[in-house]
Amino acid sequence: MFIYHKLKKGLLIVPVFLLTFCFAQDFPSVTAEDAFKMKAEKDSIIFVDVRTSDEYKGPLGHIEGSILIPLHQLEQNVNQLDSYKGYEMVVYCRSGNRSQSATRLLRKKGFDAQNMLGGIKAWNKVKDRQ
Predict the structure, then answer these.
(1) pTM listed for this prediction
(2) Where are the domains of the chain?
(3) Whole-number pLDDT of residue 25
(4) What is the rounded CA–CA span in Å between residue 129 and residue 112?
(5) What are phi and psi of 74, to 5 degrees?
(6) Which residues of 6-44 are buried (b: 16+ CB within 10 A; e: fewer)?
(7) Which residues pair with 68 in a beta bridge?
(8) Integer CA distances (angstroms), 129 to 33, 57, 120, in order
């Protein structure tokens, strides 16, 4: 029984380690609150929405002035953002998952992109408090 208990604990460590390793962020992120402040303070900040057009126009809305390029179209349409190279870029989606993939892709393409944690849902909470 002691051996089983020890083995069971060892097996739990491996998956936690693997999950941590697989989901470790290799790009910068910003909270919705910080992104909201950045938008108010900086004219040159670019917001990229990677949701679908239906989501962009939907009930959660979108950040005013943001550029819509759905994640599934981003790689083939990344050149639409070429004029924004060198600008600080905040990438968002509904809750922050798709924007992680988009941020990683944009950084590989040479953009100064950062992921907005919590997506438009977090943004709307911050906006509602203002």
Answers:
(1) 0.80
(2) 28-129
(3) 59
(4) 28
(5) -60, -50
(6) eeeeeeeeeeeeeeeeeeeeeeebbebeebbebbeeeee
(7) 49
(8) 10, 22, 14
Computed over every residue of the chain, the mean pLDDT equals 85
d(CA 6, CA 26): 33
**C-alpha of 46 from chain center:** 13
CATH 3.40.640.10 fits 28-129, yes or no: no
Stretch 117-125: mean pLDDT, rounded? Answer: 97
Q: What is the pLDDT of residue 88?
A: 96
Q: pLDDT digit string (tens) for 73-106?
A: 999 999 999 999 999 999 999 998 999 999 999 9
Strand ranges inside the chain, DSSP E: 29-30, 46-49, 67-68, 88-92, 112-116
Amino acid at site 62: H
Whether the CB-CB separation of 53 and 69 falls below 8 Å is answered with: no
**Which residues are within 8 A (CB) of 80 and not within 5 positions of it... i.e. 6 or more apart?**
67, 69
CA distance 80 to 40: 24
